[in-house]
Amino acid sequence: MSGEELTEQETALYDRQIRVWGVDAQRRLSKSHIFVSGLKGTAVEFCKNIVLAGVGSLTLNDDNPVTPEALAANFLIPFDENMGGGGSLADLCCDSLKDFNPMVHVSVEKGDLSSFGVDFFEKFDIVVISCCSLAAKKSVNEKCRKLSKKLAFYSVDCRDSCGEIFVDLQKYCYVKKKADETDECQLDYPSFEEAIAIPWRSLPKRVSKLYFAMRVVERFEEVERRKPGETSIADLANVLKLRNELCLAHSLNESQIPDTLLERLVVSTKEFPPVSAILGGILGQEVIKAISGKGDPLKNFFFFDAVDGKGVIEDISTS
Amino acid sequence: MTSGQHLSAIKGAKVLMVGAGGIGCELLKTLALSGFQDIHIIDMDTIEVSNLNRQFLFRQSHVGQSKAKVARDAVLRFRPQISITPYHANVKDPDFNVDFFKQFSVVLNGLDNLDARRHVNRLCLAADVPLVESGTTGFLGQVTVHIKGQTECYECQPKPAPKTYPVCTITSTPSKFVHCIVWAKDLLFAKLFGDKNQDNDLNVRSNETASSSDHSEDVFERKKDEDIEQYAKRIYDHVFGHNIESALSNEETWKNRNKPRPIYVKDVLSDELFQQNGNADKMMESENLSSLSAMGYLGLKNPQDIWSLKENSRVFFAALKLFFSKRQKEIGNLSFDKDDHLAVEVVTAAANIRAASFGIPLHSLFEAKGIAGNIVHAVATTNAIIAGLIVIEAIKVLQNEAKNCRMTYCLEHPSRKMLLMPVEPFEPNKACYVCSETPLLLEVNTHRAKLRDVVEKIVTSKLGMNLPLITHGSSLLYEVGDDLDADMVANYAANLEKVLSELPYAITGGTTITVEDLQQELVCSINIKHREEFDEEKEPDGMVLHGWTQAPAVEKKDAAATNGASTSTTSKSAPNILEDDDELTILESGIETISSGKKRKLSDISTPEPLEEKRAKKVPEHVDDDGDVIVMLDDVTKENSL
Ligand SMILES: [Zn+2]
Question: What's the predicted TM-score (pTM) here?
Answer without folding.
Answer: 0.81
